[in-house]
Fold this protein.
Amino acid sequence: MDNLQQIFVQEATELLSELEEVLLTFENDLTDAESIERIFRVMHTLKGSSAMFGYEKVNDFTHELEYIYDALREGTLVATEEILELTLESVDHLKMLIEDPESSDQSLLSSQVSLLEKIKQYNTGQVVANVPEVGKAAPTSSSLYFIAFNPFKDILKNGSNPLYLLEDLLALGQAIVLPSFKNIPDLETLVVTDCYTSFEVVLETTSSLQEIEDVFLFVEDAAEIKIELIAEDQTLEDGVADEIQSMSRPLGLKGILDMINGDKAEGTEPKHQVQKSTSVSETKNSINSIRVSSDKLDTLMNQISELITTQARLSMMVNGLEVAELGAITENMSKISRKLRDNAFSICLIPIDTLVIRFQRLVRDLSKELDKNIELVTEGTDTELDKSIIEKLSDPLLHLMRNCIDHGIEHKDVRTRQGKEEKGTIRIEAYNSGTNVIIKLSDDGAGIDLDKVRQRAIDKQIITEDVELTEQEIYQLLFKPGFSTAVELSDISGRGVGMDVVKRGIEDLQGDIFIASEKGKGTSFTIRLPLTLSIIDGLLVEIGENTYVIPLHMVDKCYEVPATLLTDVHQHLVLDGKRMSVFHLREALQCSKPSPKMNQIIKMKFMEEEVGISIDTIIGEHQVVLKPLGHMYRDQEQFSGATILGDGTVALVFDINKLLKKLINESSNNVSYGKLSYQ
Amino acid sequence: MESSVINSQSYLTFKLDNEIFGSSVNRVLEIIEVPKITRVPQAPEFMRGVINLRGRVLPVIDTRIKFGMSGIEDTVDTCIVVLNVEVDNQEIVLGALVDAIEAVLDIEDHEIQDPPAFQSGYRSDLITGMVKRDDNFILMLDMEKVFSSQEITMLKESESAKVEAERSKSNKKNNQDED
């Protein structure tokens, strides 16, 4: 049962986010019939599945809510801002209900009651008064429809009973049902849980096409359904009905038409043609996407990683053997496994879109609350990132967004006074750059006041008064723990977490964040992220008896220096005419094996400063499948994981940011390092 | 009928510094030879490093050092027992280095005596019982408890004072490491 509930929660969450998305489009055009239709459908599905899984409160709630959209659809109610607002509130409420179906929280119960009351106002017709009399021309005369209902084999597995659907159809009017048994196999090959029967129905009804379609709403994906209007204002003549009935086998649309029209053929033919183009015929034979649990994807990725590792070993072995034929096979295999890997990675990539929908809602709600006029513009949100990165990116981005809305964009009147457009804009741009994805978040707000930031850092004793800082260094101060520029903490951006959490979150994803800002013009945050976390390009190096991997994107330049030059764990060396902090990793890692005569220094950027680390020798580039070091080594933060090399041994992968942070803290606890200290 | 039901379990016995220990086989996944172990620098001494177990990175614990015994060079008899233990509500797989594997024994529940009293000096919270076989005593280890701690776990009671000292020292070190 737990498992089923999980499926429901997952499905419901997706439905709700879809609902939210449609509602936001709906907001732009309250008369958009398509949006109303989609909203209704989503609600209907949610209602159905919540009832099925025993989420009664959700069911009751959506049941009432659905009425409003049914009325909107029918045109008996006109969409207003209030209705939209109410629906959005309801969506929030539903989200909580799904988390907590028993409503153990009292406030949830009370909000259910109050929201339901509001909803019912619309439904009992108190508000209906202001509805103009439009489109209420209900069809009073009956029409003839032809319905071909061809259930797929597995329809019964979904719990749908085709016979019930036919009963629903019969309830709409007078009908003749013609079943087809021609697909039923011999008894030996018959699978009792499969459905082999298809139906043709000739229906005489006063109901609309829509109502007939609604009968099949839940089996759209489980059957081929064709609904055609044969003729308006026509009843099924008794004679014809008997005739069709007596055939007692499916005749197809054409056959039926012939029977009905009989001799008066020519006259009605053109009419049928016209109707055909407007009728909805839904054929969903092929399934375009399937839902796979992320556990299964993780397993797939793990297995592919193992395959790549084994492949590397095989290639190494074959190189030593010099058997031409074997070499060709191995090369072919390595090509295939590379393709397989790329394919599997692309399965795990999802577009940033999924995040942006949430932000749209945030911007809408917050700008209302703060009485600001803000528009969110997005670009390139179809850029894809690994799903695990997207999950972890949500919080940092949300925080940045809040900052932009709260501190970045000024008040309406402040903006007009400064000669800016009243409406502020927040842009989210995303694009690929090599093996990285760049996400740029910018606003056209007040920008960052450098003097103010500096002063605040001095007040907070993060820096001393006499330090000279470059622009970039001042921006970096914003990421210090305990730093917050808003003089008053609002409940929007000042929730006790600062920009330091944003930075840490992004660094945990092996990414960086940069700030650019111009006073009065706006601020932009640029986030650079790796495409995926599980595979990285690395530089294979040797230190002491071990082999290590340094992420290649961190490496700036390499220098060769004699070992005698390196004396301390931390020292300053002049390289390329520039004084640079160099950390001697041999010392830091306490290697026992004697050092080679020449050592290598790798230059890299850390917190906008150039830092070097020394290693014994460089082996070469290596594509690394990252594996977790596991729970036992969770305190060894300087390693982001390990990888298995071609010869089957394990190499540790450095998390350079954390390594340098640790080295700096250890070696210069008292001595201030550079201009900034990293306490 | 009921009285004839014999409750017995299988135990893996292994040698550590002249003592024989037993552990329920339920936790043991396999026993492997010692491959090349990659040391993880700046980790506690009892954490010997990581190995490649068929594409999986497996941490290896030097059980001698973990139990406060003196470390020795690996011999041909040295083995890694791959265990599945639950630590902080998480299933983790780890390898434990032991001096030698003895046997797998079926031991009936009634054979297991209470943990040795004070005179032996072993900590009763880690040793769940004792079995006499031939002329040897087998000490039953609670593997879960032994490996759930991130620090050196002394098996001997008398050394517990030392453990405390070790613990406060490493705590201090951890505090420094945090920024």
